[in-house]
Write a structure and sequence with these properties.
This protein has 324 residues and is of the alpha/beta class. Helices cover 44% and strands 20% of the residues. The strands form 2 sheets. Strands 2-1-3-10-4-11 form a 6-stranded mixed beta sheet, sandwiched between helices. The protein has a 5-stranded mixed beta sheet with strand order 7-6-8-5-9, with helices on both faces.
Length: 324
């Protein structure tokens, strides 16, 4: 009798194990979202939608892009950190979020070095100084001359306060010795729309966002802000070439989660992203859209971010960059 009861218990326990396993479905078992902290239509939005599609095919679940623009990417970063830390919410952003905001904003609702878990850096995007097609300034020299003649009358737009676009503009103005009013937008898309509509005369934006409008003849490129010319706009000079030494700033883009997601989710997401970044077709598509693919997992995110924040603080002090 005792042996019969023991066998029954063991059989019962054996049936419970598979049932328990069934209750813990492998990650992911429902849709995911990528938060893009810019308005639709900008460079970050373009890249986020591309990566969402690529990750979706590898994860077997829908990946939905949520645009959460505003406050120089702070609103989007907050949305990530307020979401459940289960691996189902990702965040794609640039050095604007992770090193530029901390360099100029004394109080942020996040610690860039400690609150994020990077999957990897995925791309870089160069910046270009542009004007609308009908503006009288045909080159940077004419822009500088006009700004010196009437300080603060001209405006220079960016896609957000303390973004890489803002930093590049203030750095240029400081080196050129000119004053132009800064006009921050809630993302690249609205800024570009107003430039094309001639509501603002000048803008620093990514080549990704600017190139279609350049090719359509609606805007004109004046200079790129990187140290080397861009392969996307090979005929456009750098600011350094034009006599503004030291200016070298572009946007790097990383895909991250909030710190503290389950290890299984972290590994699954990392493997899926690595697969995307090994795919020649995916890399070619990124390059065609204006990004330079850069797959770089971080060995020491806190250390690298802390060091870059310090460097950006030096630039901010020299250029007088302040939150607005």
């Amino acid at each position: 009798m005792i042996r019969t009861f023991a066998r029954a218990v063991l059989v019962g326990l054996g049936t419970l194990v598979p049932l328990a396993a069934l209750g813990q479905a492998a990650f992911p078992n429902r849709p995911l979202q990528i938060i893009a902290p810019y308005a639709a239509g900008g460079a970050a939005d373009v890249l986020s939608r591309f990566l969402a599609k690529e990750l979706e095919s590898r994860l077997g679940q829908p990946v939905i892009v949520q645009n959460r623009p505003g406050a120089g990417t702070v609103i989007g970063a907050q949305a990530l950190l307020q979401a459940p830390r289960d691996g189902y919410t990702l965040f794609i952003s640039s050095n604007s979020t992770f090193t530029l905001n901390p360099a100029v904003m004394p109080s942020l609702p996040y610690d860039a070095a400690q609150d994020f878990e990077p999957l990897a850096q995925v791309a870089t995007a160069n910046l270009v100084l542009v004007t609308h097609a009908d503006h009288a300034a045909r080159d940077v020299a004419a822009l500088v001359a006009a700004a010196r003649a009437e300080p603060d009358k001209l405006t220079l737009a960016s896609f957000g306060t303390a973004t890489v676009s803002h930093f590049a503009g203030e750095w240029f103005k400081a080196v050129a010795g000119i004053k132009m009013a800064h006009v921050p937008y809630r993302g690249s898309g609205p800024a570009m729309n107003d430039l094309v509509g001639k509501h603002v005369p000048f803008l620093i934006d990514t080549i990704v966002a600017a190139k279609p409008q350049i090719e359509a003849g609606k805007i004109r490129p004046l200079a790129v802000t990187s140290a080397k010319r861009s392969a996307m706009l090979p005929d456009v000079p750098t600011l350094q070439e034009l006599g503004f030494p030291g200016i070298d700033l572009s946007s790097w883009v990383a895909l991250v989660t909030a710190k503290g997601i389950p290890a299984e989710a972290r590994a699954r997401l990392g493997d899926a992203l690595a697969a995307v970044m090994r795919d020649p077709a995916a890399l070619a598509a990124m390059t065609k859209s204006g990004f330079e693919p850069v797959y770089r997992p971080y060995a020491d995110w806190p250390g690298e971010i802390t060091a870059e924040i310090a460097a950006m603080k030096s630039i901010a002090r020299a250029a007088g960059i302040k939150p607005e």
